[in-house]
């Protein structure tokens, strides 16, 4: 489920990693991303990704637009606890991204706290909350410069 979500999140950008795909392809990827969530899903982007909470199917319009001109998601080191048809997990996210309207890449790091529910379609996200959000940008001398930290 998590790999499928990241695949469709990143599928909206061309092979040169410079621009978004045609809108029809972006729309298909956004619908596939949204299909990784329950109908009553909650999302808290920490004021960064989605500008706060949304719930349910509105995630598809957010995924159609989004804040990035390019992004590549790496979810690693999961801690997953399963209890019947429900589960919760914590992931470390490392993301390379280029903001819309920008040319310079940023590195985005976060911990996500997530809840899942097994439904007819399989395991789906029922809640995602971004915690410990950090942005860094490469500095001219090759070092990384901290841009902001949200915890």
Rg from Cα: 15 Å
End-to-end span in angstroms?
26 Å
**Structural class of the secondary elements?**
alpha+beta
Query: Unreliable stretches, pLDDT < 50, 5 or more residues?
Result: 49-53
Name the average pLDDT.
80
Shape: globular
Please tally the β strands and state the result. Answer: 7
Helix content: 10-25%
Number of helices, counting only DSSP H or I runs of 4 residues or more: 3
Elements, N to C (H/E): HHEEHEEEEE
Strand residue percentage: over 45%
Biggest pleated sheet: 7 strands, mixed
Explained architecture:
By secondary structure, the protein is α+β, with helices and mostly antiparallel strands. It has helices at residues 2-10, 23-34, 59-65, and strands at residues 37-44, 53-55, 68-83, 86-99, 106-119, 122-138, 144-150. Strands 1, 2, 3, 4, 5, 6 and 7 form a 7-stranded mixed beta sheet that branches. The longest helix has 12 residues, at 23-34.
Summary of the model, kept short:
With 151 residues, the protein is an alpha+beta fold. It has helices spanning 2-10, 23-34, 59-65; strands at 37-44, 53-55, 68-83, 86-99, 106-119, 122-138, 144-150.
